[in-house]
Amino acid sequence: MNYTLSIMIPTIVGREKVLSDLVCDLIRQCGNLRNTVGSNEGGCEITILEFDRVEVIIAKDNRGISTGEKRNLLLRLAKNDYVVAIDDDDY
């Protein structure tokens, strides 16, 4: 599937509440949630939320890699025309 936008979110264990609030807002804004995919890659737990034209990719770890390394991993996973990297507490 081709997406217009990939929203990439690096996070760490212990920030689930902040991340959950952000993801709830994104789900409300992105529309119909079509699929959720989970995997492990590069030492991170990966969650991909697939909407009609947007994907939200979340990489969570236990401080094993840097935020920059997580963003590079997220960028490799993105299937998009445009990407944006936001923090788990951005609104």
**Order of strands across the widest beta sheet?**
2-3-4-1-5
Q: Which of globular, elongated, flat, extended, rod-shaped describes the shape? A: globular
Number of DSSP helical runs: 2
| Contiguous uncertain segments of 5+ residues | none
Structural class of the secondary elements? alpha/beta
Roughly how many Å apart are the termini?
Answer: 26 Å
Radius of gyration: 12 Å
Largest sheet: 5 strands, mixed
Helix content: 25-40%
Content of β-strand: 35-45%
The topology string of helices and strands comes to EHEEEHE
What's the average pLDDT?
92
Care to count the β-strands?
A: 5
Structural overview:
The protein is an alpha/beta fold and 91 residues long. Helices cover 29% and strands 42% of the residues. Strands 2-3-4-1-5 form a 5-stranded mixed sheet, sandwiched between helices. A hairpin with a 2-residue loop joins strand 2 (35-41) and strand 3. It is globular and about 35 Å long.
Write a concise keyword list for the protein shown above.
91 residues, alpha/beta
Q: Which helices and strands, and how do they pair?
A:
Layout: E1 3-12, H1 16-30, E2 35-41, E3 44-50, E4 54-61, H2 67-77, E5 80-85
Parallel strand pairs: 1-4, 1-5
Antiparallel strand pairs: 2-3, 3-4
Q: What is the compact description of this entry?
A:
This protein has 91 residues and is α/β, with parallel strands linked by helices. The protein has helices at 16-30, 67-77, and strands spanning 3-12, 35-41, 44-50, 54-61, 80-85.
